[in-house]
Structure formats: C-alpha cells, structure tokens
Amino acid sequence: MIQTLEALRDAVKGQGSKTLAVAAAGDAEVLLAVDMARRLGIASAILVGDEEKIRTIAAQRHIPLEAYRLIPEADPVQACRTAVKLVRDGEADVVMKGLVDTSVILKAVLDKEIGLRKGPVLSHVALFQVAGYDRLFYVTDVAMNIAPDLETKKHIIRNAVGVAHALGNPDPIVACLCAVEKVNPKMPATLEAAALVEACKAGELPGCRVVGPLALDNAVSPEAARHKGIQDPLAGHADVLLVPNIETGNVFYKSLVFLARAKNAGVIVGAKAPVVLTSRADSDEAKLNSIALALMISASNLPR
Amino acid sequence: MIQTLEALRDAVKGQGSKTLAVAAAGDAEVLLAVDMARRLGIASAILVGDEEKIRTIAAQRHIPLEAYRLIPEADPVQACRTAVKLVRDGEADVVMKGLVDTSVILKAVLDKEIGLRKGPVLSHVALFQVAGYDRLFYVTDVAMNIAPDLETKKHIIRNAVGVAHALGNPDPIVACLCAVEKVNPKMPATLEAAALVEACKAGELPGCRVVGPLALDNAVSPEAARHKGIQDPLAGHADVLLVPNIETGNVFYKSLVFLARAKNAGVIVGAKAPVVLTSRADSDEAKLNSIALALMISASNLPR
Predict the structure, then answer these.
(1) Which chain A residues have a beta carbon less than 8 Å from that of B258?
(2) pLDDT at residue number A279
(3) How far is A108 from A89, CA to CA, in rounded Å?
(4) What is the complex's ipTM, to 2 decimals?
(5) Residue B1 vs residues B5, B101, B171, B285: alpha-carbon distances, Å
(6) Which is more confident, A281 or B186?
(7) Which DSSP string do the residues of A96-119 spell out, in sequence order?
(8) B215-263, pLDDT tens digit by residue?
(9) Nearby residues of A238 by Cβ (< 8 Å), 6 or more positions away
(10) Are residues B239 and B135 in contact, defined by beta-carbon separation less than 8 angstroms?
C-alpha cells in the first residue's frame, strides 16, 4: 500500500514508461513540470498545441523538444480534443491541461463521440501527506463539485475509493466530515453523512467502509475520537475525507498546504482516464506528484 | 496591538483582577482551567453550581476552594441564570460554561429580563496563532452560526471586528473566504462576499476593511495573492477570516489545531459580555487563552 508521495513517485518509475497527452502545451509552467517528470523517469509526453509558442518556450527554458512528440494544433479546443483522442486510442495514458480553461478540457473529456466518459460524475481527489501521520489522506472534492447532493456524494466516494484502490489500499475508510459528530437536522451534511453510512452498509459503495458524521479531529485521530466518547471503531482511522461542500474542501486544502505545510497531489477522476490540472500555485513537487498520481491510477487494473 | 496569545495573557494579567462567573461549575476540567487562570494571576472566579459536586472535585483535584466565592445552585438552568446575573450586576466580568448544555447557558444570556442581550446575533470568534505568521488570525464563525445569510454575516463581522478592536487593532482587514477569488453565481458565498465588500464601502461595517471573495492562501499570503494576479492591495493581509458556513469553519479550525499545530483561543461574542465555552478537546493552554480573550474583551471600552 502506497502511504507516502515519495513511494508514489517511485512506484510510477518502476512501472516503465507512461505517456502524458498535454492539451494546449504552450505554457511555460506546464512544460517545465512535464520536462521534470521526463528527467526523473516518471513519464514521457506528447505535446499538443501552438507549435511556435511551444518552440519559443522550449528555447527559453532549455527544454529539449527532441525528447517529445509534438502535434501542432493552435486552436485550444481542437488541442484538447486531440489530446483526449490520444488517450482514447491508447497512445497516451493521461490527459494533462496546458494553457486552456478547465471547462474546455473537461468538455473534450466528456464528449460523447471522442471523449472518455465513464460514470456520471467527474470529481477531484487531492492527496495530502501531513507531518505526524503515517498515511496519506485522500480529500474530496476540494475543487470541482460545488454543493454535491447525496447521489453525487456517492459518486465522489466511488471515484476516491477507486484512487485508493489504485494505490494499493483495498478497503479504505471514508469519513464524512461535518462540523459535529452527531446527526443534527439543522445541518444537512450530518443527515447525508448518516445516509452515506447506510448506503455503504446496503452495498451501494463497495470496496470501502464509511463513517460519519465526524469532525475532522475525530476522523483522523483515534485519540481525539476516544476523548470525545465516539464508539465507532472506524473513527480516527479515516483514509478518505469527504467534505460536504467546495468551500470546506478548498479552505481545508489551502490550510493543509499553506499553513500545515503538507505535501500534496491532485487529479480529476471519474472518466476512463485521469486528468491532471496543475495550478501555478502548486509547488514543483506538487506538480510532479499530481502527474505521478494520475499515471498510477491509469496503470491500475481498475475497470475502465 | 496584541499579536500573540502570550501577549494576550500578559495584557490581561496587567489589568488587575477580573472575575469569571462559572455556571454549573461542577466539572473537573472546567474547575482545573479556572484554577490555573487563578494561579497565573489572570482571573478569579465565582463558582455557581452543585456544592457537593464542586467540593468533591476540589478535594480530588487539590483545588483550594477557599480562594473562591461559591454560590450553591444544584439546578443547571438556575445556575446559568445566576451566573449571568452576576455579570449583569457588575460582580463578574465574563460568563463561563461548566457542566451544562451550551443551549441552556445561551438561553440565560439572551433572556430578556435577566440576560445580557445586545445585538441580534451571537457568534463565535476563534483566534489562531500559526507558525510563520506575524499576526493573529480571527476566524469566524466556526462553531455557532450554521449557514448565515448576508445580514447575519454582517453581524458576525461586526462582532469579530469588536474583538479585534479590543485587542488593539483599530482597523482590521476582513477577508470573506470562498473556494475561488472571482464572483461566480453558482457559488452563493462569492456573491455574498462581493455584497459584504460593498456594505463596508457604504458604511455598514465601520472600523474595518473588507476584501473578497478570496481563497485562503490569497487572504493570508501577499505572495500567493500576487502569484494569482489579484489586484486588491488588502489581499494577503487579512486579520479576520469570515468563513461562509460552519462546516468550512469547523474543518478549518480543526486542521489548524490538529494538523498545523496552531495555538488558539475562542469566545462567544455579541452579548453585553463575552461567554467562554471551553471543550474537553481544548488543550490547557487553549482554555487559558480563551479565558484571557474573554477578559480582554470585557475590559475593552467597547460600547456595551
């Protein structure tokens, strides 16, 4: 079971060459991340985008373009479609976003004709390595689903559980985070947490165990759970942390990275192949981790 | 301007004796916190509660009851009313919750006849001291208001700004935290953030400056704000962090204390005197800090 981001990068290196399809690759930050992944033996890449822009950046940043296949496509919409098709046709393993709006690349991913649509919900899964904890936390969804309803939350859990499986955790514990540990009808998130526990017991969420509602401390620390008198033996042992809404997720994500100095990775899952979206605010290491995470997921024997 | 929790405790010590009115004081953890505050010269206390219970705990925990005034009152509802009346009559400065439900003590605080009602909204303000930052963050509301509407958010801001003023910050910067930095009609918190900025410009939120919507990193780090291309000069310099809902606040609070190892304090404000509610999960230092925070607020020359 992979429980550090370093182990994740090593596992991907050990799998042999994997390929990124970079959509609208004419972005210096993205090209630098891709080239770092290549130099470290994590991935090769096919660059789809504005050839002149890519060549200019490569010259300025000393990126050896001869190490890459380049598909000229100046139009960002077409570049996204081409990158997605490369994955669909088995020429690449993962789609990576370059200089194009997220909505454009996701539209190509979800395209009925050339896309990679699988389940009904795409969601973001973030991985965090926090000092003092012996395991990775999977936090979802901190970036994509704004205010998911109960059915959407089930898909978000399934997507995250698939990621945990890909990293060798066969039975992750999913905690439904809330502000309190008891069901309170004034807090809809607590009602949905209880419903998700029931859904898991009823077999709707295979390959995981679900606990909640829990506050964050009782989800990750057995000592805190004991202190609060929580009986559920899963409390304190969560791997996956389901946040009730995007504000909770985003503030949690930012507090982990910027205030708790956690290391991280992130990926969009729910399609037939994962999608990497790095942001300028990501550290170089976080960008590499995200590429490695996506490749690890694509390599797993999950049913596509 | 007080910018560390140690400075806060020192400032309260420097003010001379202040008094807590402890409601339903027959709780070992609460009595130990109160006695620690007494020994450190932060506060004395009047203990209202079940005399036998208080005497038993005091004997077991070596708490010198002769240092306290004790008002026997076995009924928790009456104990809350008595403690509130002590503050109202000027015999004590702050109400502190003992072994009684929060709802019971707040009912006494809000009682029209004997209570301390002032504005229309009570709210929780948490103070955090985070390693690497040179100032205290005021986070609100992580514990009381579940899903505040725009008008309630205005009161929550006013309450938190009053706390910042009490700690010597005459013009705190309030950031309205969201998942993104741009107004997005699909995310109501961003619309309300923009409305709060306008309300401040219109004079509805005096004694502060409001900025938002901002993600957490752009609220607290000028470098992150620059990196994201945010023009507002207030971005990155927030003192007060307004969270959009209780889940965001509670997960943020727990991640700061349990994952970022921040030091903290908390208090309920909005009444004529602050209310201290410590929890078993608080460290001894956090309990002391909360008592000091409440006493600092009660001592400030805020209009009551």
Answers:
(1) 216-217, 220-221, 224
(2) 83
(3) 14
(4) 0.93
(5) 12, 34, 11, 21
(6) B186
(7) EE-SS-HHHHHHHHH-TTTS-B-S
(8) 999 999 999 999 888 999 999 999 999 999 999 999 999 999 999 999 9
(9) A137, A173, A174, A175, A211, A214, A219, A220
(10) yes
Residue A179 · residue B248 · CB < 8 Å:
no
Is B31 touching A (CB cutoff 8 A)?
Answer: no
Query: H helices within chain B, ranges in order?
Result: 5-14, 28-39, 51-61, 76-88, 102-110, 150-166, 188-201, 216-220, 222-227, 246-254, 284-299
Mean of pLDDT values over B263-289: 93
**pLDDT over 90 at B299, yes or no:** no
- Mean pLDDT for the stretch of residues B274-281: 89
- CA-CA distance, A225 to A239, in Å (whole number)? 15
- By CB atoms closer than 10 A (0-12, 13-18, 19+), residue B229 is exposed
For B65, the token pair is 């009851």
Cis upstream peptide for B213 (omega within 30°): yes
- Average pLDDT of chain B, as a whole number: 95
Instruction: Burial-class residue B32 by CB neighbours within 10 Å (0-12, 13-18, 19+).
Output: middle
B chain contacts of residue A280, beta-carbon cutoff 8 Å:
227-228
pLDDT score at A304: 39
**A176 — alpha (psi -120 to 50), left (phi > 0) or beta?**
beta
Query: Whole-angstrom Cα distance, residue A179 to residue B254?
Result: 10
Section B138-143 average pLDDT? 97
Instruction: Point out the residues of chain A with pLDDT beneath 70.
Output: 301-304
Total count of residues recorded for chain A: 304
Say if residue B304's pLDDT is above 70.
Answer: no
Q: Which residue has the tokens 């969601």?
A: A123
Q: How far apart are CA B26 and CA B86, in angstroms?
A: 18
Nearest to A279 by CA among A38, A25, A29, A22: A29
B215 vs A: CB within 8 A? yes
Chain B residues 238-297 within an 8 A CB cutoff of chain A: 243-252, 254-262, 280-281
End-to-end CA distance of chain B: 21
Q: Could you tell me the maximum CA-CA distance found in chain A, to the nearest angstrom?
A: 63
Alpha-carbon gap, residue A44 to A25, rounded angstroms:
14
Please name every residue paired with B48 in a beta bridge, in sequence order, or none if there are none: B23, B71
Q: How far apart are CA A161 and CA A164, in angstroms?
A: 5
The residue among A103, A130, A241, A258 with the most chain B CBs within 10 A of its CB, best to mutate, is: A258
Q: Rounded to an integer, what distance in angstroms lies between the CA atom of residue A184 and that of residue A289? A: 38
- pLDDT for position B92: 96
Q: What's the pTM value of the predicted model, to 2 decimals? A: 0.94
Quote the CA–CA distance of B222 and B200 in Å, as a whole number: 22
